[in-house]
Amino acid sequence: MLMRTDPFREFDRLTQQVFGAQGTWSRPTAMPMDAYRDGDQYVVHFDLPGIDPEAIDLDVERNVLTVKAERRPVERGDGVEMQVAERPLGVFSRQLFLGDALDAERIAAQYEQGVLTIRIPVAEKAKPRKIAIDQAAPEPRQINA
């Protein structure tokens, strides 16, 4: 299909909860996603609320699609004293391993209301197709006299 799971993802989440997103943990944060097939394309939704579209990077290299986004701190004026800061800041990253049946040349992305939607079409060569069956002409029989 479209991705491999990251065995360290849950460990990352637990570590961030214990030490906080701004701790010394250097691995980028994984972003939640949904992925499904819709006809001749795969659709992937990433939750990226509060991220400027200019801070989102999509790269395809060989069969790997990398999504990277950065939530930067909001500029606050002098005299502002933060009371609660629970929204994670920093770099969020996710990689999808695309199969050979997907068309990496025609990937499309859209960002709306904090959700990044990526559409990955199925390659033409991988779509189901009918194969015509030729009927061979019968071979002539020889009659022995």
UniProtKB/TrEMBL annotation:
Cross-referenced InterPro entries: A-crystallin/Hsp20_dom, HSP20-like_chaperone, Small_HSP
Coiled coil: none
Residue intervals of the SHSP domain: 24-136
A Pfam family recorded for this sequence: HSP20
Source taxon at top rank: Bacteria
Homology family: Belongs to the small heat shock protein (HSP20) family.
Protein name in the entry: Hsp20/alpha crystallin family protein
Organism from which the protein derives: Kutzneria chonburiensis
Lineage per the UniProt record: Bacteria, Bacillati, Actinomycetota, Actinomycetes, Pseudonocardiales
